[in-house]
Amino acid sequence: MSEEKYIQIPKMLAVLAHDGDYHYIDRLGNSHARPLALYYLREALRDFNALKRSPPDDMHGDAKKLMHEVNEAFLEVEIENIKNLQSTQELREVLSLICAKALAKTSRFIEVSEKGQKVEQGEGE
Question: For the chain, how many structural domains are there in total?
Answer without folding.
Answer: 1
